[in-house]
Automatic annotation (TrEMBL):
Name of the featured protein: POMP protein
UniProt entry tagged with the keyword Chaperone: yes
Transmembrane region(s): none
Species assigned in the record: Alectura lathami
Record's keyword terms, sorted: Chaperone
Any Gene Ontology CC annotation: cytoplasm
UniProt-listed PANTHER family: PROTEASOME MATURATION PROTEIN, PROTEASOME MATURATION PROTEIN UMP1
């Protein structure tokens, strides 16, 4: 009789074909989580992608120019200093101004959008200090 049960299972329809699609797929929402619509949107303007990568593109061109003028050691030294400055941060629940990073990039004398409208008292990252430090250290 076990051979007969196996033949019945072989002829049956797989359960994956019974998934519900559309606005009422509640069980799929529980399995996969919410979908982020923001990630699926295309850039609304041709310059939006270029603007997002502005600092990266500017760093690449500055490193290439520095390499052509002073040699290979100059951009390597600057990249090492930038990496060291990025690693030195305050605790996760405190606002960091990144003065050293701005100085290395030459942005310390420029006034930008984030200098005026980036008020730390209105920051969304304020939370319980102990929980945030434990999360940063990977203890949670």
């Amino acid at each position: 009789d076990s051979r007969g049960a196996a033949s019945l299972l072989k002829d049956s329809i797989p359960i994956t074909q019974f998934t519900v699609s559309g606005p009422f797929e509640g069980h799929e929402l529980l399995r996969r989580g919410f979908t982020c619509v923001k990630n699926e949107l295309l850039p609304s303007h041709p310059l939006e992608l270029s603007e997002k990568n502005f600092q990266l593109n500017q760093d690449k061109s500055n490193f290439a120019m520095l390499r052509n003028i002073q040699g290979l050691h100059a951009p390597l030294k600057l990249q090492m200093e930038l990496r060291a400055v990025k690693q030195a941060q305050r605790l996760p629940f405190l606002h960091s101004s990144n003065v050293a990073l701005d100085t290395l990039r030459g942005n310390d004398e420029c006034i930008g959008f984030e200098d005026i409208l980036n008020d730390p008292s209105q920051s969304e990252v304020m939370g319980e200090p102990h929980t945030m430090v434990e999360y940063k250290l990977g203890l949670l």
